[in-house]
Amino acid sequence: MSIQRCAWCSNDPLYMTYHDHEWGKASHDEAHLFEMLCLEGQQAGLSWITVLKKRDCYRQYFFQYPIAKIAQFSDAELENKLQDAGLIRHIGKLKAIRDNAMAWQQLTQELKPQQMNVSDWLWSFVEHQILHNDVPDYRQAPAQTDISLALSKALKKKGFKFVGPTTCYAFMQAVGMVEDHENHCTFKST
Fold it and tell me: How would you classify this enzyme at the top EC level (predicted)?
């Protein structure tokens, strides 16, 4: 049996690995959720493959560190990172990673009395279940939904940046809150 992938997945090995092993797989790991939320924000105005090709550099500069460390980056440290072509050289997007780390820390503190973590809070938007969509063609999948709009508003209210409803929907797809593999795709779960 040959592998069938979603039509958006090119023949780039990096894209195929991402599609086959990560995209649409349920993640509750807070470090991974934070990384993906930030990377989806980095994508704004760009293709996802561009971000994937720069992911190792983002990991080197940001995501190898605990969220508390990322929250402490100064503006000067972030501006110095603009010299590296391995990153998307947009100071607003780089500052958003730091600002999102600060917002993540604040949200963590707010959730402690409820004995919740940020993963629980994020997954509450889909009632802690993966939403399975009928996707005959990826172009028919929504770019945003009422849930991604609600998540976007909630994140913005908490101080997160670059988290519009389309970015939030892409995040939900990436971390498996929504399962949008095309119906013919070998990796579609039922």
Answer: hydrolase
Indicate which residue of 22, 30, 48, 138 is catalytic.
48
State yes or no: is 121 an active-site residue: no
Residue ranges of the domains in the chain? 13-179
Cα–Cα distance measured from residue 183 to residue 24, given in angstroms and rounded to the nearest whole number = 13
Confidence (pTM): 0.96
Residue 110 falls in the annotated catalytic set:
no
List pLDDT tens digits, range 44-92: 889 999 999 999 999 999 999 999 999 999 999 999 999 999 999 999 9
Cβ-contact 173, 25 below 8 angstroms: no
Domain covering 13-179, topology: Endonuclease III; domain 1 (1.10.340)
Query: Annotated binding residue at 185?
Result: yes
Has 181 been labeled as part of a binding site? yes
Catalytic residue among 23, 35, 40, 58: 40
What's the pLDDT tens digit per position in 103-129? 999 999 999 999 999 999 999 999 999
The CA distance from 160 to 34, in Å, is 11
Quick one: residue 27, left, alpha or beta (phi over 0 = left, psi -120 to 50 = alpha)? beta
Residue 48 among the catalytic residues: yes
